Amino acid sequence: MSPRVKSVKGQFDLNAEKLTTTVEAKITDECKLKAIHKQDGGLAIAELEGSNWKASYNLPKKDLALKVVRKHKGYDFKVTQVIPGLEWSVFPSPLLEVETQLVKRDGLTDEVDVKYDMRTRVAGVRQKLKFEDKHECVWAVDSAEKLEGASCSWKTKMNKSSVKSLTAKYSKKTGPILKYDVDPTGNTAVELEAHLNSRTLKGELKYKPEELNNAEIGLALAKSLKDDKKPNASVFIKWSF
Fold first, then answer.
1. Residue 211 pLDDT exceeds 90
2. From CA 155, how far away is CA 109, in angstroms rounded?
3. Strands, E, within 122-210: which ranges?
């Protein structure tokens, strides 16, 4: 197949008055390209992704990341090598990950991710439990932040016009976080998030006009209730091909 553009997204930060453009393209059936361009700095991030590999480069920071995935019976093995600032002296020091499933029975399944970062010497584990495809419980912990950064969340899918899903998350480090998703009309999605400890509210509105099947427009807001500063706001439009 010949290369083609899949989508173009422009996001404008109303506070900084800067535009960020994201372009996604399909090079071949198994290779995708993603490029992020910032108004004040030119091309910022470039990504190439295949069926079992991914390469990304952050131009301002000169950070290079290479990822390879090998699928085996019963588990996936992932190796990610990050070269920060193109300092090749850290090579080799990959992040090693194993994804598998320990529970699979009627009404209950799970996903387990165990990882070890040889560069930072940090080990971590994450498990997602799914109950009847309606409830999800996720817990995660790593050896760096230990119980201070350990987190647990619960999500319930309601799929009603007034409530699509409700999520509650807690960690000792960030405190409780509540999230509310709603899709009242089928082409309008609203996400609201409250960080109780930091007293911060976040919201995002996405709308797909019926007359423009390939377009999506949106508005994102974030406001701290601790001060009188203006909320951080941005608007975007995304066009898919």
1. no
2. 15
3. 122-131, 135-142, 151-157, 165-171, 175-182, 188-195, 200-207
